[in-house]
Amino acid sequence: MARIKYKKVNKLSREDSAYLGGLIDGEGTITLTRRHKGFNRYLGLTISSTERVLLEWTLRTVGVGTITSKRTYSDKHSPSYTYQVFSQQALDILEQVFKYLRTYKRKRARLAMDNYDKLTPRNGKYSREILVRRELFIKSFFEIKANK
User: Which numeric CATH code is attached to 14-143?
Assistant: First the structure.
């Protein structure tokens, strides 16, 4: 059986890591998301902006991820976009920008870097012990919020 080959995150320069860290702090989200109710959560990193060129720079610089258009509900609103990357690729980016994060997202990034791989088996088979530890991780992750 062939294994899925994921694109690797580019090695970022110090300047690009710092800039990207600022973007994540200001316009980004570090979260645990899921595709459907009842599915396991996985790490997600997003940056939203009305400046598509900024997100295109992010995509080119990082080398992985996608840009999607957000729905505009009123003619008064500017079109907006979201850069998104998930799971191991998101973790790889966080490891490179971590020292530049300054908001509560730094705590979320640290928790994810310390626990996500250990609590997310590659084969998708979770032991009872891992499930319990994973639920505690998810609870702790979402307790980390802005201004706390």
Answer: 3.10.28.10
